Amino acid sequence: MSPFSSEPMTNNDGEPVEDAPCRSVRRRRYRHKTSTSSAPLCQQGDISEGAQNTMPGFDFDRLPQDILCHIHSLIPLRDAACFACLSHRFLRSWRCFPNLTFNHETFSVNLFEGISYEKSKKLVDIIDSILQNHSGTGVKTLTLDVSTYFKPITADHINNWLNAAVKPGIIEIAVKFPVHNRPMFNLSCSLLSCAGSSLQSISLFFCAFHPTLRTGRFKSLRSVYFKFVHITSEELGCLFSSTVSLEKLEISNCDQLTSLNIPSHLQHLTVLNVLFCTNLKKIEIYAPNLTTFDFRGRPMKILTSNSSHLKYMTLHGSLFSGMIQYARTELHSIASNLRTLTLASAQEDFIVPMLPVKFLHLRNLNVYFDSIRFQSYDYFSLASFLEACPALESFYIWAGEYDLAWKDPALQDSNADSLQIRRIPEFRHANLKKVSINRFFPSKSLIELTYLIIENASSLLCLKLDTGYGFDTSGMCRRMNKLDVIHALSAVEVAKIYIEGKVPSSVKFNVLEPCKRRSDCEGGGEEVEEDEIIWKWVSNGRFILLCL
């Protein structure tokens, strides 16, 4: 099972994100959240006579209007609408309410249960009423998510809403357009241009956006996020030419892009994410102060003019092959000063070569083998990265999916003493402290890599072999079927036979293994779905399995 999502796989310290409540607990919490906020959204017309006196004990008339507006602006839109029903002064504040957010939480829509056409139409009418009765001034942020459950929405609705909310002074616009609309909604550049002097953040999902050289300047624009946006390479270049303040850029699933050129005048740009743009062939980065680069797609030509500040990088090729080979052979010319590097690949046709080029500053390396094709892969070749990274402190491997039918012939008729182990003469590593191998399975090359680390990493403090699925990037625990548990138990046995006796006493050694009976587990009582096996962290500091 893949460990990936659209979210980052690691934090800036280079460690994979782990540990959160299990899936069933998350669902219970969501149901509770939606059930406790199911009251209908108040309408402006709900103010009754004398409503301004319905809150005894505090006289709002004593507060200056600007303070009242500030208090009002700090609460969510749903509650702010209800406050507008209590006082005429709050009603005046409501008509220039600064933070407009319309999504499933605003309307207490349970995404697991869906929504009827009639209710969708009613919610569209509510949005229409709120925005048409808004004064059009004072809006600072607009978040509009009508991507999946608002079928009655038309292009006219969206045009009217945006025209009502997007005015000079707005800071943030985030709009998820309906995915069922064909053709895509075409967002007017002139609409955004009217807010060009104040706009700091643009987030667009599923629309067409075609800026030109005549598009106004966005002198305050700091963040741009496009996902499933129809925009060409030339049009994106026009947007870049209209701003100098950009700090973060994320482009995802924008398939009309064939090349991406980040110009040198974007001197404030520090974060660049380019995700799954299938027709992209080349990336050129001339922004001089980039620190974080997350790329997800097939290996391609990446050029940088000055990467001295680039410290954190992800090359995610879980849908493609050759990313690990690409990183070892090409990455040094792209970014040689990295501190944290995360790699993912779906297939590797060649082993990682030994090369003289080094990453002298790399501290954290995470490698994900994201498919079942790696059972016979030579993991020992990853020693090339260890040799190239003398300052490395943390090394994490996700070894791939289990092929339950595959067995390493080298382990069939051998034991810890008779197994022929490869070694690298004169190899030493003075800084490696923490090593974690997730999805550890019976593989001679994995054992050889582990031996190499045990015998030559003089600063090693912790070695962890996890035979299970671990956690996905959202922290949700992964399911294991019975065959996977059997395979995990086999991996535990191999770790005990070949590795446990070789680990120095100064190294904390952990093998995360499944328990055989549910009665062995501590910390129960959580709701567990049928046929689900879940890793749990218990009080003695070990991960164990709940096995049904």
TrEMBL record:
Renumbered residue ranges of the record's region Disordered: 1-46
Domain annotation At1g61320/AtMIF1 LRR: ranges: 130-515
Domain of life from the UniProt record: Eukaryota
Basic residues bias locations: 24-34
Pfam family, one: LRR_At1g61320_AtMIF1
Biased composition (Polar residues): 1-13
Protein name, as recorded: At1g61320/AtMIF1 LRR domain-containing protein
Taxonomic lineage of the native organism: Eukaryota, Viridiplantae, Streptophyta, Embryophyta, Tracheophyta
